[in-house]
Amino acid sequence: MTGTATVPSAGGTVTYRGVVYPWHCDHVGHMNVMWYVGKFDEATWNLFLLAGITPSYLREQHRGMAAVDQHIEYRRELKAGDVVVVRSEVLEIEGRKIRFRHEMRNEETGEVAAVTTVLGVHMDTRARKAYPFPAEVLARARELARSTT
Q1: Most exposed: 60, 67, 75, 115, by fewest CB within 10 Å?
Q2: Is residue 2 part of a domain?
């Protein structure tokens, strides 16, 4: 039986674990692209939490995050019953922008199913425009970037 113990560990911090359910699959039996994006989105919010971009911070400071560029590479198909894990890493953060990467793997086989790189912008939700990250978020995200490389 092939398991994750025989597969080299991917870089990054685990930000999502889940399973592919039958209703995630399209007419040919593979997980539909909308679910890859959804699982990556959940991983994003867990990565943000680690960087200090918490739900309470966003609410209390009237801040938000917007994805302005996203690239997804689909490498292996996932099917109903597959257990998936997403590992994430901050690639860079400065000013108002954060760039990060997620890697989704089939947890049983260790195969990379998909990789996405996202550019996010920190916003003032009242002014509806980009706004610089606070120093503590920059510091935490940079420390997170160093610890996952």
Answers
A1: 60
A2: no
Q: Give the C-alpha separation, 30 to 35, whole Å.
A: 10
Rounded to whole angstroms, the Cα distance separating 18 from 40 reads 11
CATH number at residue 76: 3.10.129.10
The first and second tokens of residue 74, run together, are: 């689909």
Give the number of domains in the chain. Answer: 1
Q: Is the distance from CB of 120 to CB of 96 less than 8 angstroms?
A: no
pLDDT, average across residues 79-101: 98
Whole-number Å distance between alpha carbons of 24 and 104: 15
- Residue range 108-137: average pLDDT? 98
Residue 7's pLDDT is what? Answer: 42
3-state class (DSSP) for residue 42:
helix
Q: Are 36 and 114 in contact (CB under 8 A)?
A: yes
